[in-house]
Structures are given as structure tokens and as C-alpha cells.
Amino acid sequence: MIGLRLFAVAALLQVSQLVAAEPIELVTLDYPPYIEQKEDRVSGVAVDLVRYVFAELEQPVTITVMPWAEALKSVESGGTDGIFTIFKNRQREQFADYSSQMLFMQNISLVSLKGRDISPRVAMFANSSQFTLCVVNKVSYGKAVDQRIAGGRFKEVIRRESASECARLINEQVADLWVNNEFGARSILVKEKLEEQLEILSPSIDATQSFIAFSKLRNHSELLKNIDQVLFEMKQDGRYNSLIYDYFERLREE
């Protein structure tokens, strides 16, 4: 009888270890320099941060890049565990539980052809109806920008599946403005060889926190608490800033 009990306990421990070893599945979008996919390799400063946090928790994780609308749908339906880097809004909070600790503060900027002499705040909040704006489908750009888009304030809003497509539409003069996070816009202009043709307008129009979030259908409340604790400790002891600094130093060397 004792032998059977010991066998049962051992079996339960093995099952627990297998469950613990199951990787958490995260989805994201191609969003340089935060997330970038080159062939089968996913990299980026947000990817480095997320992988570091999960390594601290000794929790395996997989990261899949897909169109943003598809990624959101996967989390909403419970088809995947979580998503990053994601802005908060009421619609998303209905199906996703967010971390308390932000991953990044992202400056949101407008991009135009060089020489257009466009004031970003006037273009966004005063004379929006004069401009055609390019955005990535289903991407949030913060409350203020999202409200302007949803309110039909622009002459036209062109929706594409990647920010690189928006950059090309600006260069082809199909769109007047493209809205994006500043770091990402700089990275795309370099990659698309459009630094001489396009410019990131100053000042930025908003600054928005981005997070990691998990499907409510997957019930990862305990994991979220642990992620928040690691992120908090990293910000307190300097590891958070060091990780970001080291990433951009490597970029400069490439």
C-alpha cells in the first residue's frame, strides 16, 4: 500500500513538472525596434525584456509574430495565452488582463514627407480634416489619437498590416501622415532607406504606456503577479535600464 502511495505521489510530481514546463504562448506584431522578425528569428528590445522576465521565473515561453488584428483575435478567443506590447483601452480590457508594471513608455509621433512644414499638434488636433493618415490595422496609438481616428476627423484613414507599408505610402504621396511610435519609425526609415525622404515630426503627439496582457479565458492571474514582481525589481535595481541600454548599444554596432 505504501509503495502504491509513493508511486502515486511520484506520478503526481511528474505531472506537475510537465505542466510547469509547458511553454506560455505569446503573440505580437512586427514592431521595430520593440519586436522584429527576420526569417525565423524574433528579436527586439521588448522581446529581450520579455524573455529575461520569463527566464527569471523559470517559465518557458514561445513568441509568435503575426498581423496585429490576428494577434488580438487569438487572445480574445483564448487561442493563445498572452500578447505584448499592447496599449490599454476599454475594449481590450474586456478580454485581457494587463500587467500592472508597464513594459515601455512609447512616444507617439507623426511622420511626413520632408519639407511639408506640418505642425504635428495642429495636424492631429486642429486641422485633421486636411490630411490623409496611414495607420496599422487594429493598432492603438493611445486614447487621444484613437479618439480622433474613431471620430472620423481625418480626410481619410488608410489601414495597412505593417508600419513599413505606411512609410512607403507617405513616400509615394498616397498618404500625408503616418502615426507610429518614435523608436519604431526611426528603425523603419533606416530599413526602408527613407531617411532622406521622410521626417519624424517634433514634438511627439502623445506618450503611452505599453504592457503585456493575458487572455481572460486562460486565467493567468498568478503568472501576472509574478511578472509584475520581476519587472518592479528590475526597475528598482537598474537591470531594466541596463537591458534597454545594452540593446541599443548593440544596434549602433551593427
TrEMBL record:
Span of the signal peptide: 1-21
Pfam families: SBP_bac_3 (PF00497)
Ranges for domain Solute-binding protein family 3/N-terminal: 23-250
InterPro entries: Solute-binding_3/MltF_N
Keyword entries, A-Z: Signal
Protein name: Transporter substrate-binding domain-containing protein
Organism (species): Vibrio paucivorans
